[in-house]
Amino acid sequence: MTGSDTPQPSRPAPVAPGAVRLLAGLVLLQALAVAVIAGALVVALVRGTSMPGPVVFLIVLAAGVAAVLGGAGRALLQGHRWGRAPVMTVQILLVVLAVGWLGVEVAVWSVAVLALAVVVGGLLVTPTVVAWTTVGAGRED
Fold first, then answer.
1. Rounded to an integer, what distance in angstroms lies between the CA atom of residue 122 and that of residue 114?
2. How many whole angstroms separate alpha carbon 77 and alpha carbon 74?
3. What's the mean pLDDT in 46-62?
4. 113-129: buried (b, 16+ CB within 10 Å) or exposed (e) per residue?
5. What does the CA dihedral 109, 112, 113, 119 come to, rounded to 10 degrees?
6. Is the pTM here over 0.90, yes or no?
7. Which tens digits make up the pLDDT trace of 28-40?
8. Dihedral sign of CA atoms 116, 98, 52, 89 in order
9. What gap in Å lies between CA 88 and CA 118, rounded to an integer?
């Protein structure tokens, strides 16, 4: 019997910092919201619409965005750097949309979307999150 036959104790996976867990939670909340929108569009499509083509496109787009956000949120928790880019891209688009909506009418939901996008974007560039998602931080590669 050699020394290599003995089981090696596994090291516990490092726990993500609080800022990373908060960020991932907010991103997963956004993914859930987009998935709910996709579901509502499916219901509208089944009930009948005069323009099914654009509705199908929006369903596929919303499902794709929800999947990317879900994967990016998970990647952030695991310390993978690639998760930052899609999350920041979505936040920039949300800020642009919310500012446009606010130009038409000030509504609670548009202010909430803007505030959430700014908070998520701000958390994404904090030193804690950047350090956690830098190569080698938070995981073994």
1. 12
2. 5
3. 94
4. bbebbeebbebbeeeeb
5. 180
6. no
7. 999 999 999 999 9
8. negative
9. 10
